[in-house]
């Protein structure tokens, strides 16, 4: 079975590099697709615009930062969850914010997990390890998620 | 970075602009005193002024009347009275001159007839007290019959030898030539008996009528002496009754009735010849003498005059006579009196009016200031309410700003720290081989600093959250909460915990948990070096007075530093114990948000006890 990609929605290049590093440190071999703002993420997921990925595999996991340019993370979450297929995608909010209202909003809009990025990188690596172990190995997704992105 | 309490100048800035906004309101309030006093004063002053104006007007009317009409009325009445008296006198003289008894005596003579005539005259004088003498003079002016009222008031016929020759007296001369049916009214003077003015003075005038024999032959003159005292008294009294004064002036300008008894009848006395109305009021006298009408008025330098003349010839029924002796009834208003009538009451009233206004003004100020005091306190209440509202709005806005601030802090300050730490570690891991141990230690220090700053940011956010989140007090089992916290605190060293059972409180559950986490965490931290760490949680007192405490036997501190204990970033054990110095600041914030108080007692190496109350739960 081909490993489906991980969609990392992250605007900060440092965070992007560190997250990828943390994933790689945990021997995650899935393709990692990076969207640097909400628009790019939605383009990718809903097959519109230049970054549309119609025909590609749907992501096995979406790592979503909240504080994004153009369309922010919570709005991305809302739009994905408004879509019948998007509703089935596992989305982990991975953010710096531990604001109560972001947490509440994230869960209200249907995120599957809410993880705060630790400052210490070893702690981050550990968090990434646990996340991937759970979402990529332990967790079962609906079959439909194997489908390719709509064309 | 300072702590997240509202910065003092920011907290005060709404206060400042509120104060500016309040200033005009205070000025208005200050102006309000005079406005309110005026509100009372103006209508009161208006009413008072109207009342005084009415009084002055009425008085002016009265003065005006006294000035003109009243003076005229006084003289009119006086003249009517005088004429009435004169008519009576003329009638009486006519009656006696034409009497049957007199005619019989004139026709036939004889003692009996004379006797009868005398008796009749006695009887006449007895009935008419205004006459004190009735005489019959013969054609030569010799008294032939005379009845006088004696000192006892009894009319008595005089004996023959007492009768005098009156041929040279003016009343005889004036009357003897008159045709039948005509009468003579003499001037008014004082009675003279044998060359001496009778005392007390007796103002006298004489009514005289020529007497004719039935055949038409002129036989003499009948003279009635009339005592004018009652008439003069009557005139004076009536004038006073009308609010004035009346004088009676004879044709030579002398006072018969005057302002002063000493100036009356001056023509009768050699030494008083100059005391006359004509001399005192020359201009008025001229005007009276030259007046064509019997009545008139004169306004001269010496006063205001109204006068009316009594034409004695006319009163006697002899309109044809050339000489027209007159008396003048004069009503007089001196310039002083006129002025005082016109001005001094006005002056007095002005003074009273001004005084009243001053009183009103004082009263108005008093009322106004009372009113003002009330409205100032009302305004204060309104101001305070408004201020409270404004402050609340300002606070709400500050809170919103603070929330936005801490939100961005939580995101944006942490992100670079993660990069610092992450790339330091990446550097270490990927290129550690090319670094010597010193270089690797530097990387380690960079990472420690970044992580410490991360804790700092987290704690600051916690403090800010404690300050800004809403408090929802609920009944709480403090014992249970303390146990939960104790379970969560991972003490690196063994601690003997003592938690008093059954401690209730009313507080915000979340905040109270943070409070206990801070206090118990502190206690754990500072007992790290104690031989047998003991921490107890308990209380003193009950109900609203409950004082909770967390006591440990740890490092303690010098009470000298107790004042700095609850400030953010204040650390008493910076080197020995880890920490950000924000925990107790957070604890104090939580306690004060509950309306409570927190304090500590400690001594170095003997432990510390933190006390706190939750007070009356805030809204």
3D architecture notes:
The complex is a heterodimer of chains A (about 150) and B (about 625). Chain A is an alpha/beta fold and about 150 residues long. Chain A has helices spanning about 15-25, 40-45, 75-80, 100-110, 120-140; strands at about 5-10, 30-35, 60-65, 90-95, 115. Chain A has a five-stranded parallel sheet with strand order 2-1-3-4-5, with helices on both faces. In chain A, helix 1 (about 15-25) packs across helix 5 (about 120-140) and helix 2 (about 40-45) runs parallel beside helix 3 (about 75-80). The two termini of chain A are about 20 Å apart. Chain B has about 625 residues and is α+β, with helices and mostly antiparallel strands. Among the domains of chain B are: about 100-230, PAS domain (Beta-Lactamase, 2-Layer Sandwich); about 245-310 and about 320-340, PAS domain (Beta-Lactamase); about 470-610, 2-Layer Sandwich (Heat Shock Protein 90), CATH 3.30.565.10. Chain B is about 50% helix and about 20% strand. Chain B has helices at about 10-95, 100-110, 110-125, 170-175, 230-240, 275-280, 280-290, 310-315, 335-340, 345-430, 435-470, 480-490, 510-525, 585-595; strands spanning about 130-140, 145-150, 155, 185, 190, 190-195, 195, 205-210, 220-225, 245-250, 255, 295-300, 305-310, 325-335, 475, 495-500, 505-510, 535-540, 545-550, 600-605, 605-610. In chain B, the strands form five sheets. In chain B, strands 1, 2, 3, 4, 5, 8 and 9 form a seven-stranded antiparallel sheet that branches. A five-stranded antiparallel sheet of chain B has the order 11-10-14-13-12, sandwiched between helices. In chain B, helix 1 (about 10-95) packs antiparallel against helix 10 (about 345-430), helix 2 packs antiparallel against helix 3 and helix 12 (about 480-490) crosses helix 13. The two termini of chain B are about 30 Å apart. The model of chain B is unreliable at about 1-25 (pLDDT under 50). The interface of A and B includes residues 14 and 67 of A.
């Amino acid at each position: 079975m081909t490993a489906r990609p991980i969609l990392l929605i992250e605007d900060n290049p440092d965070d992007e590099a560190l997250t990828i590093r943390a994933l790689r440190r945990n021997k995650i071999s899935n393709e990692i697709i990076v969207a640097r703002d909400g628009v790019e993420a939605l383009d990718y997921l809903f097959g519109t615009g230049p970054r549309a990925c119609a025909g590609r595999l749907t992501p096995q996991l979406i790592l979503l930062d909240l504080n994004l340019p153009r369309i922010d993370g919570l709005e991305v979450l809302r739009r994905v969850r408004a879509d019948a297929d998007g509703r089935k995608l596992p989305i982990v909010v991975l953010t710096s914010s531990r604001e109560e209202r972001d947490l509440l909003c994230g869960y209200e809009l249907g995120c599957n997990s809410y993880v705060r990025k630790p400052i210490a990188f070893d702690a981050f690596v550990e968090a990434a390890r646990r996340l991937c172990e759970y979402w990529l190995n332990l967790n079962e997704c609906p079959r439909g998620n194997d489908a390719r992105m709509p064309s | 970075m300072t702590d997240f309490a509202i910065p003092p100048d920011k907290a005060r800035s709404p206060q400042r602009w509120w104060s500016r906004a309040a200033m005009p309101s205070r000025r208005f309030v200050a102006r309000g005193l005079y406005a309110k006093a005026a509100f009372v004063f103006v209508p009161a002053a208006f009413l008072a002024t109207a009342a005084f104006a009415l009084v002055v007007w009425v008085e002016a009317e009265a003065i005006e009347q006294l000035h003109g009409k009243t003076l005229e009325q006084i003289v009119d009445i006086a003249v009517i009275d005088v004429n009435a008296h004169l008519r009576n006198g003329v009638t009486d003289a006519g009656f006696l001159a034409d009497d049957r008894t007199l005619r019989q005596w004139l026709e036939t003579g004889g003692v009996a007839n004379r006797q009868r005539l005398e008796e009749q005259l006695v009887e006449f004088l007895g009935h008419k007290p205004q006459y004190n003498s009735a005489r019959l003079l013969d054609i030569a002016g010799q008294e032939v019959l005379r009845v006088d009222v004696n000192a006892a008031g009894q009319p008595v016929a005089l004996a023959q030898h007492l009768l005098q020759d009156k041929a040279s007296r003016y009343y005889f001369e004036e009357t003897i030539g008159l045709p039948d049916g005509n009468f003579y009214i003499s001037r008014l003077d004082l009675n003279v008996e044998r060359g001496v003015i009778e005392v007390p003075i007796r103002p006298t005038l004489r009514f005289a009528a020529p007497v004719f024999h039935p055949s038409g032959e002129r036989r003499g003159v009948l003279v009635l002496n009339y005592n004018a005292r009652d008439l003069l008294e009557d005139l004076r009294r009536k004038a006073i009754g009308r609010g004035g004064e009346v004088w009676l002036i004879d044709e030579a300008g002398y006072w018969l009735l005057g302002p002063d008894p000493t100036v009356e009848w001056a023509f009768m006395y050699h030494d008083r010849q100059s005391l006359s109305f004509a001399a005192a009021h020359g201009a008025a006298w001229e005007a009276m003498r030259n007046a064509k009408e019997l009545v008139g008025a004169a306004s001269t330098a010496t006063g205001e005059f109204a006068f009316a003349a009594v034409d004695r010839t006319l009163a006697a029924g002899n309109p044809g006579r050339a000489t027209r002796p007159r008396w003048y009834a004069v009503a007089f208003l001196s310039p002083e009196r006129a002025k005082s009538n016109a001005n001094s009451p006005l002056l007095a009233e002005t003074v009273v009016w001004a005084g009243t206004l001053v009183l009103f003004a004082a009263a108005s100020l008093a009322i106004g200031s009372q009113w003002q005091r009330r409205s100032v306190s009302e305004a204060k209440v309104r101001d305070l309410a408004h201020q409270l509202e404004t402050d609340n709005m300002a606070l709400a806005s500050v809170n919103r700003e603070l929330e936005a601030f801490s939100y961005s802090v939580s995101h944006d300050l942490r992100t670079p720290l993660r990069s610092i730490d992450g790339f330091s570690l990446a550097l270490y891991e990927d290129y550690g081989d090319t670094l010597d141990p010193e270089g690797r230690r530097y990387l380690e220090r960079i990472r420690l600093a970044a992580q410490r700053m991360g804790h700092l940011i987290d704690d600051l956010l916690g403090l800010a959250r404690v300050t800004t989140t809403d408090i929802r007090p609920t009944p709480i089992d403090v014992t249970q909460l303390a146990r939960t916290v104790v379970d969560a605190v991972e003490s690196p060293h063994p601690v003997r915990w003592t938690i008093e059972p059954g401690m209730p409180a009313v507080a915000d559950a979340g905040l109270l948990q943070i409070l206990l986490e801070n206090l118990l965490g502190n206690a754990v931290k500072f007992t790290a070096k104690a031989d047998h760490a003991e921490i107890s949680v308990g209380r003193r007192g009950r109900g609203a007075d409950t004082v909770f405490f967390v006591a440990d036997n740890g490092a303690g501190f010098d009470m000298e530093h107790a004042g700095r204990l609850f400030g953010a970033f204040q650390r008493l054990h910076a080197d020995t114990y880890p920490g950000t110095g924000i925990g107790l600041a957070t604890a104090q914030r939580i306690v004060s948000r509950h309306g409570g108080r927190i304090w500590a007692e400690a001594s170095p190496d003997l432990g510390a006890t933190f006390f706190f109350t939750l007070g009356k739960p805030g809204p």
